[in-house]
Design a protein that fits this description.
The complex is a heterodimer of chains A (192) and B (682). By secondary structure, chain A is an alpha/beta fold. Chain A is 31% helix and 23% strand. Chain A has helices at residues 2-23, 35-48, 75-80, 119-125, 162-167, 174-178, and strands spanning 51-52, 65-70, 86-87, 90-97, 108-111, 132-135, 147-152, 155-161, 171-172, 181-183. With 682 residues, chain B is mostly beta strands. Chain B is 12% helix and 59% strand. The chains are: A alpha/beta (192), B mainly beta (682). Chains A and B meet through α1, α2, α3 and β8 of A and α1, α2, α3, α4 and β29 of B.
Chain lengths: 192, 682
Amino acid sequence: MELLMNRYLRLLAITIVFVVASLAPNVQAKDHMSREHLIKAAFLYRIAKFVEWPAESFAETHAPLTIGILGEEPLDVALNAIKDKSVKGKEVVIKRFAQIEDFQRCHILFISASKRKYLPQIFDALKGLHVLTVGEMKNFVEGGGIMNFVTVNKKIGMEINIDTAKKAGLKISSMLLGVSKIIRDNSIKGED
Amino acid sequence: MSKMYRSFKPFLTIWAFFFLFVPILGHAQSELSSSEKTLAQEMAELSKLTFDDLMNLEITSVSKKAQKVSEAAAAIFVITNEDIRRSGVTSIPEALRMVPGLQVARIDANNWAITSRGFNDRYANKLLVLMDGRSVYTPLYSGVYWDIQDTLLEDIERIEVIRGPGATLWGANAVNGVINIITKRAKETQGVLVTAGTGTEERGFGGVRYGAKIGDDTYYRIYAKGFDRDNSVFASGKEADDSWQALRSGFRLEYKASDRDSMTLQGDIYEGDAGQTLTSTDRASLSMQTFEDTIDVGGGNVLARWDHIFSDTSDMALQLYYDRTEREDAVLKEIRDTFDIDFQNSFKMGDRHEIVWGVGYRFTQDKIRNSFTTSFDPDSRGDNLFSAFVQDEITLIEDRLRMVCGSKFEHNDYTGFEYQPSVRFLWTPKENHRVWTAISRAVRTPSRANEDMRLNYVIYSVPFPPPPTTYVMSFSGDRDFESEELVAYEFGYRFLPTDHFSIDIAVFYNVYDNLQTNESKDRFSENGYLVIPSQVENRMDGETYGVEVTTNCDITDRWNLTASYSYLQIQLHLDASSRSTTEDRYEDSSPHNQLCLKSELNLPYNLEFDQLLYYVDNLSFQNTKNYFRFDVRLGWHPVEDIHVSICGQNLLDNQHQEFGQSSGANFTEVERSVYGKITWNF
């Protein structure tokens, strides 16, 4: 009997530890950060190096480059995790907006999928502001956005509407255009 | 027994200390918000990649396991490469112990009885096992020879285990479950890997793998491995004769022909021998003989696959394979060749339908050398299997409710046409909750043994009436044997609030019909002895039901705890006309309760401390007591590419029994053991 007691006591001890631990309320309630978010954040950071903004977008030559995140995606957490961010000698600053009404000047605005229904208002608010809009939903670039993340075979690719980019006064490097799917305003969605 | 435990007390106390206190110490050490540290490291790496590189990354979530499991409308458990590494298991059957709903029992050093949700036996026939798409169950018994299912464990990407009928996609025999062993792509196994180790039961083992690329589009790897495993012991403590040795080698090659086409070619060859102690009928002496015997195995396979992507929403795959197995022991020799060709296409129809369909053909041919004990008539047979399946995944309410319905259709040479439909629903009531339910029909088609086998399993003589009479008890197959049928009702719930915590519950109620029974028949005279025959028929039905629960929790960044519990109840009913005693055998050969607790802890100084505790209920028909099993592993990676580990297994008991006598092979008990291993990557 004694040996059984030993055995079961050990099992009981482990079970208690486990149950207590698993009920711990503070169980790393981190934002649901998936690999997809990390990759998109890395893309945004890299995109900044391959786009040229008109001179008036920067208050002065040392003004930082601002990447704004509109919506629920925790890309700002991922971007903030990159130490020593700089693009073409400019410091990179990350801002987060819950809705478009809170929008402040930024150079890249990532619009999360949750804002799908508000695209018309968003593009309206950004008219004439030289903002590179990046989305992650269907028909984003057809509807007025400039760049869009698409998922093909579990990998991330990009769509770029070069006409909308031109209207916003932005120049996109051919290196980025070369690896993306190009959309034009006046054609049927096409690529060669 | 109690003497043994008294000497164990100090050991158990040390173990309790480790389990309870070391993790807490480890946690105190890792004060730094190491979660952000890891994120910073990840982002640092990603920000250095070019566009091309970024576009080639696969978005699998941080926990690939979680993504695969959360959206499935089935009871699925994924054993990852890390799970295998951290648990210290040295073979595929041993890795399956941690899966709730699976019953894994070691019969002797080279034999396991493995099943899902009941009906366990050395030749358990309700489980389908595939290795990279190649079916590995033998049509001879509809079971799996676990001793030849092996590969370099470091090259296993994951093992997906689906409990419940996977018949729609995978076909007949996937009655109670499907095990899918998936190896890594050649692209992910580049460079050289060398692994070697030794221990008390693992006398010696080693493996080497070399991966390289040809140009930019072709990746390949070749590997070789071998092991020498020690004998186990009988219940008496006496050394048994079930040691085994094996050598295996293989390759995998992938060629990316274009953006849309990729080809895979892979193959293995192996050979080995294993000892067993057989008790079988001996014609010469007209008595039972118990003797040491050797099982010789050998074989190989080659598989070719072409994957083609039509578009974002449509792709296809064409696969061919050839498999040869040779197996010989004192009572049976079997040589089997299998050819299989499969085609599969998936496409989206409109916004709401994702359709997968496929056709396949398999031809399997065997040649058997009969013996007095085991014989097949005919001794050589070729069987054809034609199959087709279709499945539609319908989005009923976007992001909220999905329905999957489909069916597999097969035509085999034993029972003709079979259909196996299934309907499943996946409901997402709230963001982190998933509820799924399924009704499916599955069949277990007859095996060659069910149809053509004659097994003389007992022989004895009595001295009266003069002259002495010899009796032979036999078991025969029957051409009229029908498929066993199952209708399964399943339900599941998942709660996944974060990447660090999840609960997965699966409930099932299975209704079986036409289950196999051994019916006593009238005696007859044959070759000078009297045969007491029984014949296989389908005169039993029954229900099984149970629950499987798994909780997975990252207590801290360095400490993960997983607990799984399975409950199973089997109730079988013989038809009134039946003269069989089969029901007890299956009702009491599977444990009612099973528990697995796993703790994985990352300690400072690159140390890993892992513990596994299992509990398995008793098997009354197998005269097997319930047991606890405790495994511990200590790993250390002093530098990036070198891993050293020491692993103790079955530490609680000198030896314990896990299963009983199986078809003449004497069972042995599992011993306490320890082994050390070093793995070097460069």
